[in-house]
Design brief:
- This protein has one domain.
- It is built from three helices and no strands.
- The chain has 69 residues and is mainly α.
- It starts with a helix and ends with a helix.
Amino acid sequence: MSFFEWFLDLHKSNPILAGAFVPLYMAAVGMAFALVADIVVRLMGVHLGDYKKEYDDLLDEPAQENKTV
């Protein structure tokens, strides 16, 4: 019996439990896709967190000017 046949039987026998299972299943699938995407991005050599350092000085300058005036 495949997963989809099992879920169809679950939906027919207990629709409330099937409805509670769907968000858990979607969260697990989403996490799996996110982990695969994270691994692919790391293997490509893209550093997604490094761009913040470049713009930190530009974002802090207006706040510092307002404090000194």
